[in-house]
Amino acid sequence: MTRLIFKLFLFLTFMPNIRLNGQISENALKSAYVVKISNNFDWDISNKPIKIGVLSNNKDFYTTLENYSQQKNIGGRPIKIDLLQTSKSLGDYDVIYVGEEKNKALTFCKKEIKGSRTLLFTNFAASLENSMINFYLSHDQKIKFKINTRFLKEHQFEPSNLMLVLGGSENDILSLFEKKDSSIVLERKSALKLKAQNTKQKELLKKIELRMDTIKNSLYSKNQEIKSKSLQIEKINTKLLKQKNHLKTISKKIYSTSNKLNEKEVKIKVQEKLIRNQTSIFEKQKNDILSQNKKIQSQNNVLEKQENLLNLKEQYLNYAYIFSLALLGILLFAVITFLGKQKSNKELAIRNEKLKNTLETLQQTQAKLVQNEKMASLGMITAGMAHEINNPMTFVYAGVNILKSEIKTYRDIIQTLIHINNDKINAGKKSEVKNLLLEYSDTQKSVDQTISDIEMGAKRVTDIVNSLQNFSRLNEDDIKTIDINEALVSTLKILSNQTKNKNISISTNINSEPLNIECFPASINQVLVNLISNAIDACPEKSGKIEVEASVIDEICKITIKDNGYGIEEKNLGKIFDPFFTTKSIGKGTGLGLSISYNIIKKHNGSINVENNEKSGVCFTLEIPLLQNQLENV
Q1: Residue-by-residue DSSP string for 430-466
Q2: What does the alpha-carbon distance between residue 120 and residue 631 come to, in Å, rounded to a whole number?
Q3: Domain spanning 2-179 has what CATH number?
Q4: What are the angstrom distances between the C-alpha of 285 and each of 290, 355, 402, 523?
Q5: pTM greater than 0.70 (yes/no)
Q6: 473-625 has CATH 3.30.565.10 classification
Q7: In which residue ranges of the chain is CATH 3.40.50.2300 found?
Q8: What was the pLDDT predicted at 477?
């Protein structure tokens, strides 16, 4: 059965090229055998073609083989056919076909291909000794072939088992073809599929041609538009020339106007001298306002009014905005008036009085806003302290309840022992006494552990209260020497509740030795709270990191606060210290925290700088002198 399938496969593959009037010619059949049998061996993978040399005087066979091999390949490589005149250099070819008339030269051909991997086909050779594959006629005049296995293996050709079986068979290929095996149907179906694909490709080409036509039409219309636009551009150029001439006339008018402005500038300078006199009066009033700030800071009832702080802030902001607009309008009115005719001294005195009253109102409003910002910080800290104190107090309350129950157990044990002591002690009472002693030992351990927990909770409350006392020195108006390291630790303890809520890690680089500086403690604590709380707000949850470092360089205390938050946009770096500038949403920030901090550091003859980190976040750097000679009350 396997032999029949193989021969039928060979026949079907070369059948379309070699059928002629219902018969297969001898040359076509041999050509097909040469290509198909050669394709049954393994060949090297290469782009070079398989060279077949035809040593025969039969040019018809050469032509038939060349035509047949045009659309074929051997081992995936194309085929090249050469007609040989002599038997020299046969080893340069991959396949050699020797015609019947050249059988006398088979011995010489065998020597020529010795040592080379060349497949040798012969035609009607007397013996297989000098042939690898020999064609012959069977008794019923059909083309068959025989295989010389030994000769093939000498030239590194390994015949398959199927070829060994087929070599020299008596089967009729034509009769097998007429049985119409299922493989023929499959080949026809594949041919129909290819035809359908070809039809689809033709339709696709037609669509592409139509698309190209539409593109050409659109290009033509675009060209027309370009031409019309060019005409419009020419018209615009002519208009521009006219406008250029018109601008020349305008420039002349501007030159004359500039001369008039110069004359007015002289008049403005005279008015500026008068304004300078007014500013000296404003500075005196400013000193009076600063003295009033001391009285405002003595308010002790602000904590009870924190529910109204947000509303007060909004009202104060509105008042400041209205007063600023009023002041701007008055100044503009004064400048316009100065550019015109000079008013009488009486009107100027009235205007100055109004400006004085407006400035006093603005200064009072500003002082209230600064105080409100301080109170907001203190309110935020108080809320955190309440949460922090509540945690250790839980230990205390829980320990007290446990002590109550354990003391009751003590009393029961003591009463039982007294009762047993009054009775006569027997064997049963001894075991009861032993159990009571064991229970007493366990209860004692529980009491000791509870007392330790209460002590730890009370110590935490004490530490938190001390930190709060160290921070909230709001009424200290004199310069004092403080340990800045202690101030940083107290601030971090106070803000620890915020860091726990966002799961932020804080690392400090602070020396164990005191770092003493002269300052207003309450003001410096307010600056530290503002900067660290801003860093906490900017840090992402769970992955936030804050680094705090304090050191002394050349009698200057340097404090750096670095975070990995979202940073500050470059366009906003120059505005963050401006009053009322904030990027937070409404209700979360007033824009006064950094402005107040900036003014406090400046009052301490120090500096505050900010810059974005390389990866993310910002770094605030504070530089404060260790010693202060003369400082006004912040």
Answers
A1: HHHHHHHHHHHHHHHHHHHHHHHHHHHHHHHHHHHHH
A2: 114
A3: 3.40.50.2300
A4: 9, 11, 65, 24
A5: no
A6: yes
A7: 2-179
A8: 59
